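Dear colleague,

Thank you for sharing your sequence with our group. We've completed the structure prediction you requested, and as agreed, I am returning the results in plain text so they can be pasted directly into your records. Please verify that the sequence below matches your submission; if there's any discrepancy, let me know and we will rerun it promptly.
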Amino acid sequence: MFFGWHRSAFSGATKSKSHASLLEQRLFLFQIAFDKSASAFHILRMVAVNSTMLPLGTAAPEFKLPDTNGKTVSLSDFKRKPLLVAFICNHCPYVKHIRAGLALLGRDYQPQGTAIVGINSNDVANYPDDSPANMKQEARDAGYNFPYLYDELQSAAKAYRAACTPDFFLFDKDHRLVYRGQLDDSRPGNGLPATGKDLRAALDAVLAGKPVAPAQKPSIGCNIKWKPGNEPDYF
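Please find the predicted C-alpha cells below.
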C-alpha cells in the first residue's frame, strides 16, 4: 500500500494550508519513505488533493450514468429526496480506509429516505483496477447498498468540481448543496476511526429539517485520475 504526495509538499505549504494539512503532508512523506513496495513511478502519479468546496446552495448538477449492472441512474430518479453524491473509486487508499464506514452509513441512512450514489470518474485505461467490472466486485466486497456509477466521460466529476477520492456532496430534498467535504477527520495512518461523524451530523440535520452547520472541512484523497488532456481548470 502506498500513499500520495500532497502537491504543496514540493513547493512548501502556503499560508492558507492548515496545520493539520501540514501534518498530513509529513505523514504521507513518512509513509512513502518506509514503503519499499511502492515504485517511484506510482508515487509520482499518486497526488493527494483537497476538495474544491463547491459553494453551498449550488443546485445539484445533472448526471445520467450506468451502475454496475448497466442500469442508467440519473438525478431525476431522486426527486424530493435528500441526495448524497460520493466520488469514490476502487484502488485509492483513502477510499479503502473509509469504505467500511461509508457502507455502514449507506445502511443507516438509505432506510431513512436519503438517496446515495457513488461515482467513479477515474481513467480506467491507465487505472484498470477502477474498471466497471472491478467496480461490480468492489461494490460487493465493500457492502455498498447504493448505486455505484461509472462516469466514463468524467463529465459528472467536472460538473460537481470533484477533485479527490473520496469527495462528498450532500443536497437537501430540493437538491441544493448543504454540505461538501470530508466524511470525518480519519485519515490513513492517523489512528482515528472512520465514524463518518461530520457527514452523519449533516445528514441528521437534513433529515430533521434543520440547517447544516456551515463550518465544513474539505476532504483529502487521491486526485481523480483525469484522462490525458481532460484535466479540469481546477486541477
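Summary note from our side: The first helix runs from residue 8 to 11.

Kind regards,
the structure core
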